[in-house]
Amino acid sequence: MADAAVSPEILAEPVKEAEPHLILVDGSGYIFRAFHALPPMTRPDGVPVNAVFGFTNMLGQFLTRHAGTHIAVVFDASRVTFRNAIYDQYKAHRPEAPPELVPQFALIREATAAYGVACIELDGYEADDLIGAYAKGFEALGGQVTIVSSDKDLMQLVRPGVQLLDPIKQKPIREPEVLEKFGVTPDKVVDVQALAGDSTDNVPGVPGIGIKTAAALINEYGDLEGLLAAAPGIKQPKRREALLSNAELARISKKLVTLDCDAPLPRPIDELLARPPEPGRLAGFLREQGFRSLLHRMGLDGDAAPETAPVSRPRFAPQLPEAAPGTVTEITPAADEAPFGPYETVVDEAGLAPFIAAAREAGVVAVDTETDSLDALHANLVGISLAVAPGKACYIPLRHGPPPGTGDMLQEAPVAPAQMSQEAAIAALKPLLEDPAVMKVLHNAKYDLEVLCRAEHGGIAVSPVDDTMLISYSMDAGRHGHGMDELSLRHLGHRPITYDEVTGTGRARIPFGQVALDKATAYAAEDADVTLRLWRALKPRLRPDQALALYEQVERRMIAVLRDMEIAGIKVDGAELTRIGEDFSARMVVLEKEIHELAGKPFNVGSPKQLGEILFDEQKLPGGKRGKAGAWGTDAAVLEDLASRGHELPRKVLHWRQLAKLKSTYVEGLAAQIDPRDKRVHTDFSMAITSTGRLSSTEPNLQNIPIRTEEGARIRRAFVAEPGHVLLAADYSQIELRLLAHLADVPSLREAFEKGEDIHSRTAADIFNLAPDQVDREARRRAKTINFGIIYGMSAFGLASRLGIPAAEARSIIEAYFSRYPGILEEMERLKSEAREKGYVTTPFGRKLWIDGIQAKEQARRGNAERAAINAPFQGGAAEIIKRAMVRMPRALREAGLSARMLLQVHDELLFEVPEAEIEATAECVRQVMESVAELRVPLKAEIGHGPNWGVAH
Question: Is 383 within 8 Å of 429 (Cβ atoms)?
């Protein structure tokens, strides 16, 4: 959202210009930015207005910044246009607009008219066509045109008299920017798009050709027709075949992406003349919507300000009763009236002292670091930002060099700007950052804490800490992202300066340490300012949103736990990795030979296209389906289905693919990530990514190592303990099934867990009416499949596919399961109902898990959302249990006098490095903590193993 208030300047006369200048605003871009940036809001009569408010705010701000002689906002009139007659699948997969957005479309057009700006739309044509037609018509009259949009499809219109303006970056897009984006000049953009296609709009293009290849071809052959004419002579066989086979698709694609610049003009150009809004009309519109903050900031409130304000409430619960007037108001920048900047650049102790004093007086300070790397364990500090009050922030540069191009010919080297030494800054800041009486507020605090705790940065133990990312995540997991920029737009109505804006992009990007100090300060200090404002806006919501205990007792305490785990890392045996890689390569060669023999000829096993032709064109295997581009589908689901029917070739290809993936990801990739300083890998745990509360890991991703395969076990054997130590693995046993027995309160399952029985054998006996000694391996296998499948909302069709049985038989098994365990079906229906009513479900510990698409009209999307609603409490509950164990573990080990280190968390497993002399004591301590962190209707059980490597311990 815009960072500035709508100014009374828009009520003044328009600026006179030397030549005609038409501004065409892409209305759809504004609408969807506004809708997704702001939380749900309703006006006093219950009509949703978050998109209306955001659109009105953005358009008002735009009018204060840009002046033209003519202006219009262009909208899409309908989903169906002339392009659907050309290609019936054009945009066919796009979902309907969210139901809470639909009533806002008409209001947004009213808002445009209230500003005195022309609205343009026409049935049968897209907004882009009308933009092209008006641009052509106005240019013919000798005027200049600016199109306010970042839509790549409009780049074909760029020429000397027509430019685009990126509405987010406020940057013009002219021929150089188009050339950087597409690799061709604007007049050839449609040829590139015709070849590359566009999955967003279902433009097919030519399979296998992307933007870069398309640009190279068009630059070589001139245009699409020139390329197609020369296609028979192209040397690369795959490319030649793709072009010849899909020539007509490419021509159709070009028709789809080419804008109709001869479309009819719904309103004459002279009716687009820019004029100031009528204050009475604009005030009336704002008052009707309940936009009191806009009325006030525009000086239009007078004595007739409305008595009620828009009410924020969950997007998926329109049936909730209205809150009392004025109790919850729209979230706008009015909460903090101070502007975002200008900020102060601090270059000495004297300049820093007032900020330190203000932080101590306030008892809170927002902190942000600027570094030269995303790897916290290797990054160097470039600067530090502080914010002590909204709008009052500073940047302390520490390692800035001269900006590129500075200096003069008489100097041997450009001179670095004046700044504090790192030693002086740390000496001044360390007492503040370690002061227990001052709260330090950060966003994604784990990263900054890892940077600052390193010895070369003063070994600062920052405490106490609040993290605005985790505050948001504790309340809104699954509802939206939790990055600072997104939260700023959503909760503050402010778009922060982006990293790209200060450092550039692509080859032109410069390190942050070379950014001029005025720009670096505007960017870095704003981050601290935004973080502080987010803390002021979000922290008070924790208690009413019933997320305070979750945040304080679990999420906030996880920061230090994960920081220490990432710093510790885990040792990897490089020589063992090499041996594994060689073994995988040799096995892949053998598999390739066997696959070629089964196929009857050699082919590229890694080529989905060639594999599809072998399976379905030559061997005529059943079940093949072609994609929209005409190629056979050969994804894992297809191959698994064929393998389950007894076909050997797809089974071996699946094995080959698994080896290839493991080799590239975990053999070669893992070897590249071994830190040469300690021979350990230091994974990065992401704390606010998943919708269920589970952690994820990257660089390397340790979540996806296969658990039950020999190959996965081989890779785990490369993770080793230091000499004199062992690795100890503690894994929760069947935790999701225990949560199922707890939530659904199933007596027989509870009894089985309490007695320590095999839960799958017990289930088989119950649903197949067998005596315990009659349960064979097949019955247990079927029971195990449905036990785990039910947690994921598996259908009869899914069970039939997994077990290789008819759908009718699978249906009867599920019916028997629910008949024997009726509480499970009741719990599943309760969860779906809760999700539909509230938009979220809750874990057994109260965390809200928002379910996207639960109100969708499309059955497939709604069905996926219902399955997610069923599964989320089990995954989320399991995540919370292991997190609770993790935050208790360091203290428990310390109080027991044990020196074990917790290294990894993967799914339901914790991995420790333990001195050999402390194995038994550590195992007992870990077991006690893990099995006592939650009180369920069934006992928690942790299975513990140990050994010289992870494979043995697991």
Answer: no
Contacts of 662-668 with CB under 8 Å at 24 or more apart are 662/584, 662/706, 662/711, 662/712, 662/715, 663/581, 663/584, 663/585, 663/588, 665/700, 665/701, 665/704, 666/700, 666/705, 666/715, 667/577, 667/580, 667/581, 667/584, 667/715, 668/581
3-class secondary-structure state, position 547: coil
Distance of CA 204 to the CA centre of its chain: 26
CB atoms within 10 A of CB 410: 5
State which fold the 8-177+259-272 domain adopts: Rossmann fold (3.40.50)
Distance CA 855, CA 864 (A): 11
Q: Would strands 171-173 and 118-120 be described as parallel, antiparallel, or unpaired?
A: unpaired
Please tell me the distance from the alpha carbon of residue 69 to that of residue 275, in angstroms, as a whole number: 8
CB–CB of 133/261 below 8 Å? yes
pLDDT tens-digit series, residues 830-885: 999 999 999 999 998 889 999 988 988 888 888 889 989 998 999 999 999 999 99
DSSP 818-834: HHH-HHHHHHHHHHHHH
Cβ(72)–Cβ(272) below 8 Å: yes
Structure tokens belonging to residue 624: 């093949």
State the SS3 of 103-133.
Answer: HHHHHHHHHHHHCCCEEECCCECCHHHHHHH
State the DSSP string of 383-447: EEEEEEETTEEEEEESS--PPTT-S-TTSSSPPPPP---HHHHHHHHHHHHT-TTSEEEESSHHH
Nearest to residue 381, comparing CAs of 321, 456, 314?
Answer: 456
Residue-wise pLDDT for 548-607, tens only, equals: 889 998 999 999 999 999 999 999 999 999 999 999 999 999 999 999 999 999 999 988
- CATH number of the 344-565 domain: 3.30.420.10
The tens digit of pLDDT for each residue in 321-334 reads 222 222 222 333 33
Reading the block at residue 943, the tokens are: 């299975």
Query: The tokens 């867990």 sit on which residue?
Result: 753
- For residues 321, 324, 326, 331, the Cα torsion angle rounded to the nearest 10 degrees is -30
Task: For strands 144-148 and 21-26, give the pairing.
Answer: parallel
Spatial distance between the Cα atoms of 763 and 747, rounded to a whole number of angstroms: 12
Backbone angles phi, psi at 381, to 5 degrees: -65, 130
**All structural domains of the chain with their residue ranges:** 8-177+259-272, 344-565
Radius of gyration of the chain (CA): 31
The Cα 170–Cα 177 span in angstroms is 14
